[in-house]
Amino acid sequence: MKRIVFVFVIIAIVFTEARAQDPHFSQYYSAPLYLNPAFAGTGNNHRLIANYRNQWPAIANGFVTYAFSYDYNVAEVRSGVGFLATVDKAGSADLTSTTLQFIYSYKVQLSDKWVVTPGLSFGYGMRDIDFNKLVFGDQLDFSDRGQAPTTDSQVMNNLGSANYFDFGAGILIYNKTFWAGFSASHINTPNKSLLDVESKVPMKKSLHAGVKIPLYNGVFKRDRVSSISPSFVYQNQGNFDQLDVGLHFNYSPVMIGAWYRGIPIQQDTKDNVSQDALVMILGMQFDNLEIGYSYDFTISDLSSVSGGAHEIALKYSVDVSLRRKVKHKDKFIPCPTFTK
Question: FRET partner for 339 with CA separation of 20 to 30 A, picked from 26, 120, 149, 314?
Fold first, then answer.
């Protein structure tokens, strides 16, 4: 019975106008290209990142999201290039959304200390459902009549897949200790409907900023200096608003963090939860590898049934700063990384 009910929930998602929000990573600083295309090439390395999120694992066939990205700083032309692949799955019928994006950014050095970077993303998306996992009521009613079960042919014939282009843009300003940015996803409001109807995805807007504060500024040089890094992300998509705010403490090779998600000044509404989750983060850093794990403690009305959310982030980088010479006068300024 639970299986059938969940199938009806998935069908309702398919049929109704797309009001669902994009997947969200609690470790958003470890998914920089997903947050803002302007982050492409803001480091001095080749950077490979993998993200995994399992949301509400206590609910059968909940939400699972994967993201894989690569970006690189092409210093000779003051540009950053990147690639991002995102896969999101939901429900027992595997409602799957896949997006492939090419990302480009350009760096404008305002001074010896400040850089502004606009960025663009050009994406192609696909959305489908596994028909073999759908169970309709009329497939269950005729099994004892000695005849082949009939199916809801009208629904089956109308259900299909969606293919669409998806565009985004962003801008970032930063120095060695501070960054702030704004990004917009789904600027063209693509149609993701699996039926022959229009079901556009609303534009997602994100405002984000952070600062890295060293806890030692003395005259003696230290091999390791601890730091704290407060930051926030505010997102709006359609009628949905979300705020993430928190703090990292870093003393290499260990990083710990605590986060709050919700908008406490708002009361719960249809699309917003005023008290959503508390997030605890633990990370380890090696020469070229960073590993982060986080768990969302749900504090909304779903706390007793959701099982929170698990998230893992892996980042691997290759330093190429000593292998080439940049033939222009601008000094490269990397965007601050809050995990090192």
Answer: 120
Residue reference for tokens 């999120």: 53
| Cβ proximity of 96 and 129 under 8 Å | yes
- Per-residue model confidence as pLDDT tens digits over 1-15: 444 444 444 444 444
Residue 114 lies in a domain: yes
Q: Please name the helix (run of DSSP H) or strand (run of DSSP E) that holds residue 122, with its range, or none.
A: strand 115-128
SS3 (DSSP) at 26: coil
pLDDT at 181 over 80: yes
pLDDT at residue number 6: 43
Burial label, 310 (beta-carbon count in 10 A; 0-12, 13-18, 19+): middle
Domain membership of residue 340 (yes or no) is: no
Would residue 339 count as lying in a domain? no
Instruction: Write the CB contacts of 125 (distance below 8 Å, at least 6 apart in sequence).
Output: 97, 98, 99, 100, 162, 163, 164, 165, 166, 190, 192
Q: Tell me which residue of 280, 281, 283 sits closest to 291, measured CA to CA.
A: 283
Among 60, 78, 76, 82, smallest CA distance to 10 is for 60
Compute the Cα dihedral for 7, 8, 14, 18 and give only its sign: negative
Q: Across residues 106-124, what is the average pLDDT? A: 94
Indicate if the pLDDT at residue 172 is higher than 70: yes
CA 121/CA 54 separation, integer angstroms: 26
Instruction: Please state, in angstroms and rounded to a whole number, the distance separating the CA atoms of residues 230 and 250.
Output: 11
β-bridge partners, 104:
81, 120
Phi–psi pair at 35, nearest 5 degrees: -75, -45
What pLDDT was estimated at residue 198?
77
CATH of the domain at 14: 2.40.160.40
Lookup: tokens for 311:
């998230």
What is the count of structural domains for the chain?
1
Pair 62, 23: CB distance under 8 Å? no
Nearest CA to 310 among 289, 288, 282?
282
